Amino acid sequence: MESWKNDRVGSAIAGENPTVMAHLSGGFAVIGDVQWLPGYSVLITDRVCVDRLTDLPRAERTAYLSSVDILAEAVEIACAKLDSAFLRVNIEILGNTDPFLHAHIWPRYQWEPPQLRTKLYPGSNWSDPAAALSSAHDPYRSAITRKIRELAS
Predict the structure, then answer these.
(1) Which residues are CB-contacts of 76 (< 8 A; sequence separation ≥ 6)?
(2) I need a labelling partner for 33 at 20 to 30 A (CA). Which of 9, 53, 124, 138 fits?
(3) Are 30 and 42 in contact (CB under 8 A)?
């Protein structure tokens, strides 16, 4: 495993996390290192030792949620442009697995299997090599990054 995955926040702060698309006022917008739903992105905190939203003072919480909004809108616009089967984005802040504040931005598509379109995908997708981030996802990464810059300016 790449060492940056052991400390996603620290590696983003150090400029060593290759999934970072942009640093927003509330955190780092990153492209997911799995892409079974192309365009999947995450907003990770830019504060060490913050593992839940309520760890942030209210002003920083607001900045974080505003950054989630910018990333979600960027994913929505980019994915709709790249895939005519795009339906919507789902946003989740769960905190059950990774020990740092992060929000998942899941694009959803008409081409998804009907039994999964309104459900969670199996956990095995996280380790499936076929779902790994690759150069095939560069158009999504580029389009999302461009849109983030437009929306955040």
Answers:
(1) 86, 88, 89, 107
(2) 53
(3) yes
Q: DSSP characters for 107-130?
A: EEETTS-HHHHTSPPPGGGGG-GG
Tens-place pLDDT, residues 74-113: 999 999 999 999 999 999 998 888 889 999 999 999 999 9
- Using alpha carbons, list the distances in angstroms from residue 120 to 45, 112, 116, 128, 138: 24, 11, 7, 15, 25
Contact 11, 71 (CB under 8 A): no
Tracing tokens 């795009």 back to the chain, one arrives at 86
Residue 89 corresponds to which amino acid? V
- Verdict on whether the full-model pTM lies above 0.90: yes
Instruction: Judge contact between 75 and 39, C-beta under 8 A.
Output: yes
**Is residue 68 within 8 Å of residue 152, measured between CB atoms?**
no
In the chain, what's the furthest Cα-to-Cα distance? 41
The pairing of beta strand 86-92 with beta strand 20-24? unpaired
Question: What CA–CA distance (Å, rounded) separates 9 from 137?
Answer: 22
Contact assessment for residue 19 and residue 33, using Cβ atoms and an 8 Å cutoff: yes
